[in-house]
Each structure stands twice: as C-alpha cells, then as structure tokens.
Amino acid sequence: MPPSRSHIRATIEVYLSRHAEERDALEGLLAVLDGTAEPSSRATLPGHVTCSAVVIDRDRRVLHIGHRVTGLLLAPGGHVEAGDRTLLTAAVREVCEEAGLRPGDLCLTPQFLGEPIDVDVHDIDSNPAKGEPAHQHFDVRFAFYLTAGQPPALVLQDEEVAGAQWLPYADVRSPTLRAKLLTAEAHGLDGRPEPVNASALIHDGAGRYLLHLRDDREGIWEPWVLALLGGGRTRDDSCLEATLRRELAEEVPGLELTELVPYAVEAATSVDDLAVPISVYAGRWSGDAEGVELREGVLLTWCTVDMLDRLRLSPGLGDLIRRHAAEYPAAKGPPDDTGLLPGEAPAGTEPHIVGVHLHIQDGHGRILLGLRHPDSAFAPDTWHFLVGHCEREAAIDCLVREAKEEAGLTIAPEDVDLVHTVHHVDSPNVRPRIALVFQARSWTGDPEVLEPDRCVEWRWWKPQDLPEAVVPYTRMAIDGILRGRRYSEQGWGER
C-alpha cells in the first residue's frame, strides 16, 4: 500500500506549521487531499504527490541529476510507489534508484529530521505517448546528509538519468529549495552528520542493566528485541538530553533519573535503512522494573553481562554493555569492618564526579579552549577546557588519554602539574563535581577535532580576551590560575 492520505496530510500540515505563508500556494495539493482519489497515484489529475531527496555533502553542495526527458537538472525524485511506507521512504528509494546510493549512505539532518525541507508545485507537460495530459506535481522534498566525508561513487540509472552534478546552495536550480537551503545554512545546515537520536544506558551500579522489549508491529524500529529506552529528536527538543528525558517520561513516567551523563555515540540503522548515529547517556537507577508503568513496548527487565549471549538484542548493544561494565565494575566482595560493600559509601556521603581539565598556553601566552557541540548535553555552543570524566584510573592518566583522544595531543605524565581545583554544583538535584585543572608544561602535536560530536573547534585565546560564552567554572579556574589561587568554589552559596 502507498502512504496513506492521513500520513500525507500530517506531513504537509507539519510543513505548513513552519511555512504558513505557503498555504495558498499549496491550495491544489490540499484539494487533492480533500478528494477521494489516491493522492500519490500518477493517475490522479490534475495533480498528484511526488517525492525528492535533497542530498547534501560536507562542502554544502546538493546532488542534482540530469533528466533525459526534460533536460533539467533536478534533485533525484519521482513518483510514489505502492511499496513505499512513507513519503520519506519514497524519496530514499528514488535517490537510490536514480543515483546508485544506498540508504546507509544517508542520514537525517538535525534541522529538518523527518520533516520536508520544501514542497514545490511545478507544471508537467502532456505526454501523448503515455496518454498523460498536462498536470502538476506536488513535490515533497526531504533533506539528507551523506554519512561519509567524500561523496560515494554514483551509479546513474542510464535510461532516465544523463549525468550528475553537486551544486552549492546558491546554485541550486529550484528557487523554493534554494531559498530554504540558504536560510537553513545560517542555522547550521552544514552537511556534517550528528546524532539525532538518544538512548539511556541505565544501570544499578551492581552489575544490572535495564532493557526494554520492543513491540512487534509494522513501523517499529528493531521489533521484538531487547534494546535501550530512548528515541528520536523532535523540533521542540532543545538538545539530545531533553530528547531523552522527554522519551523516558513518555515511555516510563515512573522512572526518574537525576543525572544523565554522555557516554558514547553508537551507529544504528532505521526502519528505512538510513544511518542513525545515537548519543548514549548513562544513568543510574535501581528500582523495580516490573513495578513502573510502561506505556510503550512489551516489558522492562534487568539483565547482567553473563545473560547477554542468551538474549535477542539490538545490534551492538551487547558490546556496549560489556564495555560499560568493564569501565565501571560492579561492587564485589564481602562487607568490610564498617559493614560496607566494596565501593559503597558511608551513610550521608555524597558521591562526586571528578573531571580532569587541560590548561595549556602557547608561546604567546594564549589558552587553548574548545567550542562544545550545539547538541551537547552540557554547555552547548560554549567554550571549555579539554575535559574528560575520570574513570577507574589515575587523574593524570585520564588527562593524558583524553588529550590524545580528543585533540591528538601527546603529553608526558611527568610534564603535568595540578594548578587549580574547582568544587562546584549546578543545582540541588545533581551530583556535585570536582574539577581538577592540570597544566602541561610541554606537549607534541597541534590540536585537532577528533571527537566532533563533543567539540567542533579548538582555538587559542588571550587570557584578557576570552569569548563571552565560556563555561562559568572554566572562567573561574582561569582567573584563579592567573591570580595564583589553587582553589575555587561555585554553586555552594556565598562565602
């Protein structure tokens, strides 16, 4: 069955909620949706729905193909077919057929997600050979990023396509699409993939992990497997952590996590076979999985690492859990002479998160800071030290590791000094933190963006000319270092 009338109407209404000024221009499409004929059938006249794919590469160029019949350069697209589950599915199929791409070569953009970027109305000349009179196409266009840094080799559909070109936004042939692209460019439509889904790796600290059994229904992503709770971002979500908290509230309203910490970015595949990078957040909870209300899916259950090989899991989940379990081992062994289990804190003790921070200055006295990703759960679009959470390792070892992983800098442990400590807390409901700021006297390598999902740019700043958007405790630490102070506090009230 082709996409339903209700699906098409919902898609168009979502588009018009962004572009209410185009409602009159789409009057013909709305009339088709109010009629009785199949909206996407090419037999529906005087017009019907078609779909196109706006494929964007890292150089902010859009794929155009030459149509043999019309001689025009257009985004890949065409008629909806009976097997297309949604309009977006039809757009993906068309670009794969006409340009030889695979669905896994594409991913959604954070600016438009699964919503159309443009809906265009254009006239089609009569085709006596096919018995088709002149009519209109209501072309629904969806934006995709390429997952790879370089465009893959194209395999063009020879009978319909004559050549292909990648055109900059300003040269895109469709005026309506060109205008949308240039507007979206100012809001970050840059062709660089980033996570648009978020999942929660929930554990109890004692070796158990919370898994969600998904429904076995058409359209459900990875049906009838155990997976993590979570879901896709919507336009109303301010960041991916907000996406995850909304999804948890919708799926399991009784499950409340005070803190979610970014843990990993995992690759997955959608129901349309598109690539889906997922931001995984770790959270701790030890409640009764059967006692909370579950509004989506079949059940919640706790599992341990030794059970993973016997379970039907979403791809890659077993390795993810094993990695987390290795990095954060569960407490084991008998109680000590105080009655506490290994790793268990005395009553009233508040566990703290320890972060290590790198303070380096170049030959001109400038300080290295990184600009955090706009979708970062903490301090998006804000400048910060190179930073990492201290795992089960010495703090200096953590610093050396993070400097290499995040920026390609090689630092010898003996060249590191602790120059400042900030004891800070953001609110009464989150865990306090201790920020250890280490200064490296020397290093090798130039800063590189190696984890673009966290940091999008490294830059050297003069201490007296720091940008306005700096993480507050980072600014406090820099000021303390310049003044020769070793310790600062933030969020604990006035002193």
Question: What would you say this structure looks like, in words?
Answer:
With 495 residues, this protein is α+β, with helices and mostly antiparallel strands. It is built from eight helices and 23 strands. The strands form six sheets. Strands 1, 4, 5, 6 and 7 form a five-stranded mixed β-sheet that branches. Strands 19-16-21-20-23 form a five-stranded mixed β-sheet, with helices on both faces. A four-stranded mixed β-sheet has the order 12-9-14-13, covered by helices on one side. A hairpin with an 8-residue loop joins strand 20 and strand 21. The longest helix is centred in the N-terminal third of the chain and has 14 residues, at 5-18. The termini are far apart.
Question: Would you summarize the structure shown here?
Answer:
The protein has 495 residues and is of the alpha+beta class. The strands form 6 sheets. Strands 1, 4, 5, 6 and 7 form a 5-stranded mixed beta sheet that branches. The protein has a 5-stranded mixed beta sheet with strand order 19-16-21-20-23, with helices on both faces. It has a 4-stranded mixed beta sheet with strand order 12-9-14-13, covered by helices on one side.
